Amino acid sequence: MNTLFWLAYLTVTLWSIVNIIFNGSTATKMISWSLSVIVLPFLGPLLYYLFGINRRKFKLFKLKQTEKRKLYSETYKELKGGEQSVHDFKDYKQDKLASLIRKNSYFAPYEGNQITLLNSGEEAFEAIFKAIDEAKHFVHLQYYILEKGMLLDRFYDLFEKKVKEGVEIRMLYDSLGSNSLRGKVVKRFKKIGVKAYASMPIRFGNLLFTLNYRNHRKIVIVDGKIGFTGGFNVSDKYMKPISDLGLWQDLHLRLQGPVVNSLQRVFVKDYHFAGEEELLLQEKYFPKIEPAGTTIAQVISSGPDSRYPAIMQQYLAMINIARKSICIANPYFIPGAPVMEALRIAALSGVKVTLLTPKKSDSFLAKYSMFSTFEALLEVGANIFLRPDFSHSKVIIIDSEIASVGSGNFDYRSFEHNFETNAILYDKEIATQIEVLFQGHCKEDIQLAMGPFKKRSPFTKFLEGLAKFFSPLL
């Protein structure tokens, strides 16, 4: 029996290591997965098969619909009525960032937008409900988490009313993030006329090819003219303290103007490959949008079917072009070697680097993986502040001039595995408003100091090291 066990263990382990060598994406992840399959008999290879295989090279990314996704992105780079609002930058920093995003994500920077910051659950959802209530033609909604509760019930009641008024409602949700939205709950929405579909549905036949790739976007589009995006999910924890983390905090954007065209393109592509309808590339879904403000805005989207890791490239580019300051707020700061080194270089070259992240976390591994990066940042002079509440915001601001708000975290999952969307705002006034909110949380009493931090217990350091070992796998 022992001989059979060891033979099976060696066979499975060697098979896994050979696959890691042939198909690994980075040396760090290859080492982590190799050690995992060695020290975790059978469990390690199983985890690698579920979460580690680079399926860009395998079935998921050879599916006909995925090839269509790529073709869609490249074919519909600019839709009718958009070119007149595309901005041509004269500033080197802005032009460099905007050009990168236009090439890696196929979205142009549009001028003439009005941006409203929504800094609490109450602000965000009241603005969303108001916009939906005033909808005349259609509402498109997409969330990673649609969770049963007060907020979802309010969406249901509002959708029921709008469908009776002749408004088309389309809804996408991630099948893993919105795991409570199955069966009767979805049927309830469909019964009133909502066209609801799961993104990347988890089924027995495709489990191994979709489980690790989630749609993490948060998007609402009303009549093709008003859009919302940012970090909020549809969950009551943003409205009242229903978990150990208390009331969740976040940042969302209300967008009005030509940039909404880009958000609509993101939704339409995802909807086409989740639902049964044809592409919604009709004029009624892409109306001509008149300027509504003075902000230049650009959408960036990225996913496992993207040609480039666009969100990671965006963050790297913003760090590299910063000359005075970099402010990052993120609940899952596990940046990986390239982004980490870029931040260290920025700090050493005189750029003020400030990181704001929650002291508490909803993930044990994420918390200790994140804390394992702090010492390397502190030693080059970066400022780190630990919020006592739980902030879910994903924000980066550089030089008080350019700000990014969206769904993309600073971790491997957002960089490589998730479908994400950020909005980049080339506007000093808006960037300053966001930075004022950011700095309002950076109090002296929550700043992390190198001396006390280095004195943390050996057990804490052990947990950080253990979590750091798994960080490339998160």
Question: How would you portray this structure in words?
Answer:
The chain has 474 residues and is α+β, with helices and mostly antiparallel strands. It has three domains: 2-53; 113-293, Endonuclease, Chain A; 310-473, Endonuclease, Chain A, CATH 3.30.870. Helices cover 42% and strands 17% of the residues. The protein is built from 18 helices and 14 strands. The chain has helices at 2-23, 27-39, 43-52, 64-75, 92-105, 121-133, 150-164, 184-191, 207-210, 260-274, 310-321, 336-348, 364-371, 374-378, 412-417, 428-440, 450-454, 458-470, and strands at residues 110-118, 138-143, 168-174, 195-199, 219-222, 226-230, 252-256, 295-302, 325-329, 352-358, 383-387, 395-398, 402-406, 420-426. The protein has a 14-stranded mixed beta sheet, with helices on both faces. Strand 12 and strand 13 (402-406) form a beta hairpin. Helix 2 runs antiparallel to helix 3 (43-52) and helix 6 (121-133) packs parallel to helix 7 (150-164). The protein is globular, with a radius of gyration of 22 Å. Residues 56-64 have low confidence and may be disordered.
